[in-house]
Amino acid sequence: MPDGFLTPRSIALVGVSTRTGPAVFNVIDQVLAGGFTGRIYPVNPRGGELRGLPVYRSVSEIPEVVDLAVISTPRTAVPEIVRECAARGVKAVIVITQGFADADEAGHRLQEELLQAVSGTGTRLVGPNTIGVVNLYDHLNTSFIEFTRQPADTATICQSGIFLLGSADFTCGIGLGVDIGNAADIDFNQTLAALGTDSRIRVLNLHMEGLADGRRFMEIARQVSREKPVLCLKTGRSEAGARAASSHSGSLAGEDHVFGAAFKQCGVIRVRDVEEMRYFNKTFLTYRSMPGRRLAVVTISGGAGIAAVDACGDYGLEAARFSAQTNDKLAAVFPGWMEVGNPADIWPAGMSRGYREVLELALDTILDDPQVDALLMISPAYVDPDADPRLDISAHVNRAAARHPDKPLALWIFGAYRRELTARMEAAGRVAVYPSPDRAVASLAVLYRYVHGIKNAPAALPADTGGINRELVGQILAAARRDGRTTLNEEALDVLRACGIPALPYTPAIDGAGAVRAAADFGYPVVMKIASPQISHKSDVGGVKVNLTGAAEVRAAYDDMLHTVKERMPQARINGVIIQPYRPGGTEVILGSKRDPSFGPVLVYGLGGIYTELFRDVSFRIAPITGEEAREMIRETKSYRLLSGFRGRPPADLDALAECLLRLGRLVAVQPQIREMDINPLLAGPDGAVAVDARITIDNHTGEETPEQK
Amino acid sequence: MPDGFLTPRSIALVGVSTRTGPAVFNVIDQVLAGGFTGRIYPVNPRGGELRGLPVYRSVSEIPEVVDLAVISTPRTAVPEIVRECAARGVKAVIVITQGFADADEAGHRLQEELLQAVSGTGTRLVGPNTIGVVNLYDHLNTSFIEFTRQPADTATICQSGIFLLGSADFTCGIGLGVDIGNAADIDFNQTLAALGTDSRIRVLNLHMEGLADGRRFMEIARQVSREKPVLCLKTGRSEAGARAASSHSGSLAGEDHVFGAAFKQCGVIRVRDVEEMRYFNKTFLTYRSMPGRRLAVVTISGGAGIAAVDACGDYGLEAARFSAQTNDKLAAVFPGWMEVGNPADIWPAGMSRGYREVLELALDTILDDPQVDALLMISPAYVDPDADPRLDISAHVNRAAARHPDKPLALWIFGAYRRELTARMEAAGRVAVYPSPDRAVASLAVLYRYVHGIKNAPAALPADTGGINRELVGQILAAARRDGRTTLNEEALDVLRACGIPALPYTPAIDGAGAVRAAADFGYPVVMKIASPQISHKSDVGGVKVNLTGAAEVRAAYDDMLHTVKERMPQARINGVIIQPYRPGGTEVILGSKRDPSFGPVLVYGLGGIYTELFRDVSFRIAPITGEEAREMIRETKSYRLLSGFRGRPPADLDALAECLLRLGRLVAVQPQIREMDINPLLAGPDGAVAVDARITIDNHTGEETPEQK
């Protein structure tokens, strides 16, 4: 991303109106109001003068090659101006105009033209359909709308200008911001790489509707999130929302659970809405550390303290248990009838011994306690603190916070004057005030998660592709392609074996005698399954018989199965049957992979049988994954308990199961021609895991997409 | 609840400090500041004068029988003063003092003394451990703390004073309020009955830690919630929170899911936290109707509109589809390249045709559309509306809202000056402003739910107990009690049959020959189960054999089962076996009931097998239930899909299943000696439902509680 976008020394404002002032929405007014110190060149074919500056008739007339051109002409005029900029050597161009890929067919074509105009020229483009950039460090903004420029060490990358214009509200202020708009050229990834490495920025905020290259995003975000928190508001979550997103910025929103998995893997913290975004920003701008998850609550109301303890349970923090020393110190001032503990209700003690004195003692004592990692102070704002300075405890709270910069001291303040007291409390930047215990605890929990989870997680993508016999896999897939087949059934088990994933052996048979020979080779009991490229759900058509215990049974089963299947699926080509050893026991799980347009191969794991669908108890990750991610995938399903010794069942070998997921991830990552893959079921037992049935769908010869098989 | 509590003409303030002014927390200061117009009598043994009023040495010295006494002496002095009040004929007493059931053993005893002091006297008590009452209609409050008295037509009943003191923040103001504190005498139910019937009150707010009599609460709440919304913040949700609640007000928090079920049944709307409470109050104070669930979004940002559509999906509203007429009217002003639809992004049109003109057209056109039930306007507050009145669209919005008082016009406003613009918008009381699309949509969704669900639901509890042969049930239970048994196994099936719940027949057998005779009577195949009062999980000890197809098999099974069970459970008394017909097929579900200390018999329903526990896929209701509630119980589990024709399975007879739940609810409601009951499994098939196994635990002879069996 050329420097010209965020730190230009000169700007051309192309297509600015000749009118200025209120309600005209002229960029020049905002650039001047922001205090930009570089050179400004308004451009309009009519020429003349604007806000005391000469107006140039075209970019070519400007006496220097500007660092940045900002275009806001009607859409049909844009491509020619971009070409002119590129020819002149302007490296950074912002297209504010709407009506491109966000609009009709003509708009899509115009956006294509823009891309062609800069292709190979070294000129780069932000937009179209953007309000451009904000850099409050250097007094730059290209917005055409007046907004509150509240500086803060945060950066925002968005697909809608409101996230820059409303930054004082959404992110507690802003330092750098880019509205990538339709992201025709410069996209999320390039912007994230640029803003993410700016050492002044302490929190990165993303407003995302869609992503063109999800895998590259993950690489960059993984690096950036180790340095500073990356928060993301992903919209277009719902189906209706995704449709709306597509017409807003031409983004493909994709499946929400895939984004969720990707964010988890690369350390991006998802925020639910703009309120959460605001409070998470406040949190990360105020606090840098939190030693553990043990929260102390100091309250002026027992009832309020209970609400805070409830929230701890919801968000994974723990109510701290005070040390004996802390309890003794508090007991010395608490009334005799009152039990000392966490939450510490200081009201009765404060009434008899002076509120501020007890408050100071409680805050200092509790923050000194090594068994406490953070403190939530619950305090009222019933009346105007400006009218009665006695009610302002901000000095006391800030003094206590300053003694322990490593432990967050947060506040929940309530009452009519909540905002006034909040401003006083937060003025020194040492404490953060929240409007509910829920907000406070959720915010501290995300701080803990960041400091202890994301910040120290490995920054590199798992690169190991060991254990995959790529040559053998390639041969099996190539053989299917040669036959013109895009679906592999039994051979999928051979592919698995070539990846080190245990799979049941199978032997094909084309008549009863062959079936009996195969069965005898394996030893009884055996399973018989119909072999047909057209039949996916074999048991639905009578194509599976389990627990066959002898030769006669096998022979009868063969005749019966072929008869039944032919009757039910007369069009299917049937290649006889396959025989497998019968292995009862173990828990049936499903492993699979599907190709996402943005993120590529996505792994899915869940309980087998009808329950996966019924309870949607599945987990997702972008492939490849690490061993730890494989274990997470297993642990985050509810059916995990079933595998870990539920109600007296023998626990399954989870390491073996995780290894299967890990290897499946490697396989689909290195074999891009695998479009979709299912191991269904894989039996997870106490002595290991084994794939029983599998299916692979590959792209056909020509590389064209074939229609989905399911 | 005597009138003296909320509309006293005279108040005794017993135990007030002789000091007044800031930081003394003297009730008399607040009573006077509030503008109370009745007679005030401070009481303190020292006598003298306070704020110009003579101080009486005791309640007996006061020259009249006051309507209300407010006591704030040290705790040990309280019982004697309460006795004095009762003797004097004071009908309403508030005990502010802490340190009773909220504290140590001595405190519990003191609270008992308070109760005895008023018992049978006609004197009633609010508290102890309370800040008392608020009645802003009559300028009364008994708080000892200064707070903002913002009037609003809401009432609050709480167990923590902060909900009255912080009402300007939590509930957008207040009209009436009672802090029931420890609720030693006057409790939630009596207060709810009193405040709920006040016609001035439009929203009732509850802060609840626990409930002594849940069934009575439901009766009252069911009545009140048909007249006005009842919102409840239930704290002590988590286990740790429940422990904290018990030491705060001596409440037993009970199991959270039971409260959840009870609230659903009696129309109480649960709020997650104080922020949600605030916005739900704002919603109900602003809007009275919402014709349907179709939401239109008018936005100045496409990206923001997408977030609103996402929220619709989350909270069960629908994005409206505009009529052709609406689309045409909007298309006439929108730029040609822009598709017209919902959300309607009016920014491009506003830029070219004037923002306010387009805004007015859009609001009026869309609110006129019969396919739209509510409108969310998304609007910025980037700069100070006081500095630039052009940015204030509140007049336009309010004009549009006034034209359609039946359809909510809500706003999401963002930017640094959100609060300033919000105040202007809301001044006329016609529109509500929210800080995020999530808040706005969640609030409109709860309005819809109230108007269309709760408001019109039947107000009476289901009283029908038809179809239960109470005499027969009584005989079976009495027989067990006579034998000294508290657990019924096979006989539980007889109890079910007596309630009209189909149950598999069974025949006991005490030897192999008897088993064969019984099997022959039913016809093969049959099931054999061990009969022993000590064995609950029969299959775990080899006590169940299914699908026995002939006499030899039955005889062998009998010998084998008795041998195996005796080996595994040598202490168990074995009464032979029972034989039942074997009925394969159908889905196994569990129906049960358990007695809750506050709500009495609670029904539970869920999928059978290990999945109930694994996925916690169960629903609860307080018994008895209506037919509609029975169907809701089935529908709100995820396993519902399994019963309704999942993946080609035949759908189960849901009416028959609901009927079983309904009748089970009647049974446990009329037979209070049933402590716990399980039908596990009940087979739900396409042709009806039938109980296969059941167990009942009853109270023993003496009426004492026996330890739990599980």
Automatic annotation (TrEMBL), chains A, B:
Nucleotide-binding as UniProt keyword: yes
Domain CoA-binding: 5-100
Record SMART domains: CoA_binding
Statement: the UniProt record of this protein carries the keyword Cell membrane: no
Entry keywords, A to Z: ATP-binding, Ligase, Nucleotide-binding
Entry-linked InterPro entries: Acyl-CoA_Synth/Transferase (IPR051538), ATP_grasp_subdomain_1 (IPR013815), CoA-bd (IPR003781), Ligase_CoA_dom (IPR043938), NAD(P)-bd_dom_sf (IPR036291), Succ_CoA_lig_flav_dom (IPR032875), Succinyl-CoA_synth-like (IPR016102)
An example Gene Ontology molecular-function term: ATP binding
UniProt family annotation: In the N-terminal section; belongs to the acetate CoA ligase alpha subunit family.
Descriptive protein name: CoA-binding protein
Originating species: Desulfotomaculum copahuensis
